[in-house]
Write a structure and sequence with these properties.
The complex is a heterodimer of chains A (319) and B (279). Chain A has 319 residues and is of the alpha/beta class. Chain A has 12 helices and 12 strands. Chain A is 38% helix and 18% strand. Classes of the chains: A alpha/beta (319), B alpha/beta (279).
Chain lengths: 319, 279
Amino acid sequence: MSAAAPSRAGLFDCRDSFAATIEALAEADSRIVTVVSDSVGSSKLGGFKKKFPERMVNVGIAEQTLVAVGAGLANGGKVPFVSAASCFITGRALEQVKADIAYSNVNVKLIGQSSGVAYGELGPTHHSIEDLAWLRLFNNLKLIVPADPWQTAEAIKAAAAYDGPVFVRVSRMVVPALDRPEGATFEIGKAETLLEGSDATIIANGTMVHRAVAAAKTLAAEGISVRVVNMATVNPLDEAVIAAATETGAIVTVEEHSVRGGLGGAVAEVVISTSPVPMRILGFPGFVPTGSADWLFDNFGLNETGIADAVRQTIARKK
Amino acid sequence: MSAPAVPHKADPVSDIAAQALWIRRRSFQMVYEAQQGHPGGDFSATDVLATLYFGVMRFDPKNPTDPTRDRFVMSKGHCTGAFYSVLARAGYFSEADLSTYMKPLSKLNGHPNRNYLPGVETNTGPLGHGLPVATGIAIAGQMDGADFRTFVLTGDGELQEGSNWESALTAAHRKLENLTLIVDRNRLQQGARTEETASLDPLDDKWRAFGWHVEVIDGHDHAQLLEVLSASPKGRGKPLCVIANTFKGKGISFMHDNVAWHHGVPTKEQYEQAMRELV
């Protein structure tokens, strides 16, 4: 059940990893079904549909029913993976996510595809940079933002194994496979320290993690020692945040999300209540202009240069 | 001030009638004691609930998550007076628990929570949630070739929520004959008549146009309810919509068809008068 092949040299579309993993899981567990809202192709579930046509429910363009049908299928003993564009499965069906999934505490896996600004050129209606802020309010809903193909596969496996509601946020923007020690494991709620450091910590997730690693390496060449934490699980948040604050004294968060209420907000809530240190939250300020995802990342400082600058400025605020 | 015990009767229709009387008395007592609730809708729905639980559905209250059970989804989740009364009466929990209705830390929320109470399938309260969830349950049953049935009770004003019509499409498309929707057609919503707010009529034609089999009945006639709801769905090839014509506040003269009783609560004198009428 390894990650799928790279979509172009050394870079991976994590949806392929999701698709390969869900097909393998479904082979082994007949309870696993998928639910889509005319989102077979965009979820890369064509292979699943071919192998298990009777185990895919397509409700049409109807996100409220999409999510609610997931809750009903769980009631009937299924393990549903409900997959659609992240902007719609969250925003359009938010009350179903709240009442039918989270508050009812049912065993449903919500997959938010093409999250962040993957649909950059399509504009803010199709950007999904609010999803984590909306969902983070549901305390029992696990939120996972995997950073690369391996972690996407592991997150899907962990979601299937966990008995309860989970949201996995998948990108379509290609990312490299991260360097990890042999035998690395994934656990919901556990952060992953990719680089050790003592002057500051960058806490990132999703597509921003490899950019954070690159920024930390640039800073290392200047003699600045930066820890990089891949905070794939936004809820529950790992206490690695507290260690980052107390041990490095400065934190920069980076996410493909609004600066309001996402990973940065979650980290800030912990930091302010435990050991306040200078912090900077990198992300999008709100509705952003139309442009490709890469253009948007560069324009809003969500790249190696922008992250490195933010780290230098945040360290400068340390007393 | 507890409701009187009702002897079990051999005749199913008169048994349902006796249970319905008990539910009306007990639920109104709950609302009176809590000084909160939605008694008008409790009373319009009572006969449907009594018929389902005491004449139609297959369930074991001692094994509330039995995979073979028939499911009931209370989409009009605000009518917990009637819903909790029927669940207690059916044996899911103690009738004494009903006296905790809406008190601090009670398992008997104003709206039902499956994690607190056995017999609740999904947490409702916001309207338009029950039918979509029930559709998912019915799909699971259809996938497995299981013979359990799924029933969902909605209000009529609630059908103004678009989510119902999304699910109406899916249920018909998938030929969910194991799914039965009952519309508590009391023609009143919180603030006014449905037809003065956002018209629903012709409601039966709407469901037929969406591909459902439709039955329009008197929602207070236990014999009609029993006949329509207990008929085997096998071979129908369509989901069933039962439009149960009802009255808000049915059974109590001063509440009958009176919009003020959507979430009105009785004074001591009104409560006593209601108990005199509910015999």
